[in-house]
Design a protein that fits this description.
InterPro entries: DNA/RNA_pol_sf (IPR043502), DNA_pol_Y-fam_lit_finger_sf (IPR036775), DNA_pol_Y-fam_little_finger (IPR017961), DNA_polymerase-Y (IPR050116), DNApol_IV (IPR022880), IMS_HHH_1 (IPR053848), Rev_trsase/Diguanyl_cyclase (IPR043128), UmuC (IPR001126)
CATH architecture of the largest domain: 3-Layer(aba) Sandwich
Structural class: alpha+beta
Distance between the termini: 41 Å
Shape: globular
Site (Substrate discrimination): 20
Strand order of the largest sheet: 5-6-1-7-8
Helix content: 25-40%
Largest sheet: 5 strands, mixed
Bound molecules: magnesium ion
Number of helices: 14
Binding site for Mg(2+): 15, 109
Catalytic activity: DNA(n) + a 2'-deoxyribonucleoside 5'-triphosphate = DNA(n+1) + diphosphate
CATH topology of the largest domain: MutS, DNA mismatch repair protein, domain I
Family: Belongs to the DNA polymerase type-Y family.
Strand content: 25-35%
Length: 446
């Protein structure tokens, strides 16, 4: 895959606006224009997405849901409907692939597109990119009812920053001649790979903005950070990002591995490392909206003999705690006393999200605690009760969604994407006329 042409704004970053919350507002007319929070609704849950109306109250992604409830008690708190989100995501990714075969999905609601992948020889100047991107945005709105923000530039870095500039429902095309000016005032953390540790180190050297890095010059950054980091960071500070847009065929497995500088013999150390690898693998799974049923470890011994061990679970998972536990158990069957030089953890047998996973994973204990012994996981309960936001159907009242439940009652609002705001009714929570249902179908012609 070639790096993008930095002289043309032909790389797009697509980002659906407040995605999970927007799908909820589309399918639940009574929530339109209201604060909606999708996330873990239990005691230790965190916010996955807040609608723009909820963000006004200071609610944002990764905030504990309990804190969000204190900031805005009247918001609708919903558990999330990943089947509905996946359906919309695949429609949008399909439209993106009509733009160019070079589409790299980053998560359910984000993707990069390199227009040069069309191979039709078209020159991607600002006018041409604007025309194609506006048509794409209109197509997404028509097909799904949702708004998507698009940034375009000469690299992934610039495209991503541009898509965020005027959210929601905006297109920002950055001419290559203006990208340095765009980046200059932004904090260094906006550069991919610059986390809080790097940012703190840069701050101690007097760098807080991207423009300050660009002005420092390559040799100064190399002196401070070493050749590899210094040169790369200097290029990125001027918007030069060689990462290609990589179109992935449907991933068959996701794995991560680590080669050690010295052969490791300490089992506890290896278990820690397996837990960290599990965390890397599962965060990539979750970013792609995936979960998997088979956990594999790969172990290369001091003499380069490699062993793979795997086990298949009853259900797909994307939680790091669960993958780490299975990896650890697989590792327990392997003799490490002569030294291990490489350890890998993988997940295969991929499907869409296991519903409960994404939003509960952030509650997990730190990696360091993962090596503690855990009780054997129970099989998932067939009837876990009604979840807020869940799609249901009632024999007499038709389709609706669960507004709340407790003390033996369940409250349902009967409405759908093409109805006016609906009425609420309350039932016994074991009412035989009420059952879970598939997400409602959104009809673009309605
Ligand atoms: Mg988004």
């Amino acid at each position: 895959m070639p790096p993008p042409d930095p002289s043309r704004p032909g790389v797009l970053h697509l980002d659906l606006d407040a995605f999970f919350a927007a799908v909820e507002q589309r399918d639940k007319p009574s929530l339109r224009g209201k604060p909606v929070v999708v996330g873990g609704v239990g005691g230790r849950g965190v916010v996955a997405t807040a609608s723009y109306e909820a963000r006004v109250f200071g609610i944002g992604s990764a905030m504990p849901t309990g804190q969000a409830r204190r900031l805005c008690p009247n918001a609708a708190y919903l558990a999330g409907r990943f089947e509905a989100y996946r359906r919309v995501s695949s429609q949008v990714m399909g439209l993106a692939r009509e733009l160019s075969p070079l589409v790299e999905p980053v998560s359910l609601d984000e993707a990069y597109v390199d227009l040069s992948g069309r191979g039709d020889g078209r020159v991607w100047d600002v006018a041409a990119v604007t025309e194609v991107a506006e048509r794409f945005r209109a197509d997404v709105k028509a097909l799904t009812g949702l708004t998507v923000s698009v940034g375009a530039g000469g690299s992934k870095l610039v495209a991503k920053i541009a898509s965020d500039l005027r959210k929601p429902d905006a297109l920002v095309v950055v001419p290559p001649a203006e990208q340095a000016e765009l980046l200059a005032p932004l904090p260094v953390q906006r550069i991919p790979g610059v986390g809080s540790v790097s940012a703190e180190r840069l701050r101690r050297h007097g760098f807080t903005t991207i423009g300050e890095l660009a002005r420092a010059g390559e040799s100064e950054l190399v002196r401070l950070l070493g050749r590899a980091h210094g040169s790369g960071l200097w290029a990125l500070s001027r918007g030069i990002d060689p990462r290609p847009v990589v179109s992935e065929r449907e991933a068959k497995s996701v794995s991560a591995e680590e080669t050690f500088g010295v052969d490791l013999t300490d089992r506890r150390d290896l278990e820690h490392r397996a837990a960290r690898l599990a965390e890397r693998v599962t965060s990539r799974l979750r970013a792609q909206g995936l979960a998997g049923r088979t956990v594999t470890i790969k172990v290369r011994r001091y003499d380069f003999q490699t062993a793979n061990r795997s086990r298949t679970l009853q259900h797909a998972t994307s939680t790091s705690r669960e993958v780490a536990r299975h990896a650890r158990e697989l590792l327990s069957g392997i003799d490490v006393s002569d030294g291990i030089r490489l350890l890998g953890v993988g997940v295969s047998g991929l499907t869409g999200y296991a519903q409960a996973d994404l939003l509960s994973d952030a509650d997990e204990p730190e990696v360091a605690e993962l090596v503690e012994e855990e009780p054997e996981e129970e099989a998932p309960e067939p009837s876990a009760g009604w979840r807020p936001g869940q799609d249901v159907e009632h024999d007499d009242h038709g389709p609706g969604w669960v507004q709340g439940s407790g003390t033996g009652r369940v409250t349902v609002r009967f409405e759908g994407p093409h109805t006016p705001p609906g009425r609420i009714r309350t039932f016994a929570d074991d009412d035989p006329a009420l059952r879970p249902a598939d997400p409602p179908v959104y009809d673009p012609r309605a």
